[in-house]
Design goal:
Layout (H helix, E strand, L loop, with lengths): L3 E9 L3 E8 L5 E7 L6 H5 L2 H9 L8 E7 L2 E7 L5 H11 L6
Antiparallel strand pairs: 1-2, 2-3, 3-5, 4-5
The protein binds adenosine-5'-triphosphate.
The site of adenosine-5'-triphosphate has 13 residues, from strand 1, strand 2 and strand 3.
Keywords: ATP-binding, Kinase, Nucleotide-binding, Transferase
GO molecular function: ATP binding; protein serine/threonine kinase activity
Protein name: Protein kinase, putative
C-alpha cells in the first residue's frame, strides 16, 4: 500500500473502514477500504463474496471500479476509484428532473 497516501477517513462500516487516498505517482484519487478481519491466505481473500460480486460487475458503467485488492501483513485492502459526492444526492437530483408519471 506504499504507493498510496491516505488523506482522511470517510466511512466506517461493519466490515471495514474507508479512507480517501491518492496514488502517489499518478495523483488519482481512490477510496481505500481496510477490512477489520485479518486474512492469512490469498485464497480466502479471493473467495470473499465482495470480491466475487465486484469482479462480475466491473464491466458495468454505473458500478464503481475496484482498482485492486491488496493483502499486506495479513490485512486486506480494497482500492476503489473515488466517487466525489454522495449517491443519495445524485439519485434525488435525477428524480427531481424526471417528468411526472402519466395517470
Ligand atoms: N469508492 C468510494 N468513493 C467515495 N466514498 C466511498 C467509496 N466507497 C465507500 N465510500 C464511503 O465510505 C462509506 C462506507 O463504505 P463501505 O463500503 O464500508 O459501506 P458499508 O456498506 O457501510 O460497509 P460494510 O459493508 O463494512 O458495513 C460510504 O458510505 C461512503 O461514504
Amino acid at each position: 500500500m506504499d504507493k498510496y497516501d491516505l488523506l482522511q477517513q470517510i466511512g466506517d462500516g461493519t466490515f471495514g473502514s474507508v479512507a480517501k487516498g491518492v496514488h502517489k505517482k499518478t495523483g488519482q484519487l481512490v477510496a481505500v477500504k481496510r477490512m477489520k478481519q485479518k486474512y492469512y491466505t490469498w485464497d480466502e481473500c479471493i473467495k470473499l463474496p465482495e470480491v466475487q460480486v465486484l469482479r462480475k460487475l466491473q464491466a458495468h458503467p454505473n458500478v464503481i471500479k475496484l482498482r485492486e485488492v491488496v493483502r499486506e501483513n495479513n490485512e486486506l485492502f480494497f482500492v476503489f476509484e473515488f466517487m466525489d459526492g454522495d449517491l443519495l444526492g445524485v439519485i434525488r437530483k435525477c428524480k427531481q428532473n424526471m417528468p411526472p408519471a402519466q395517470a
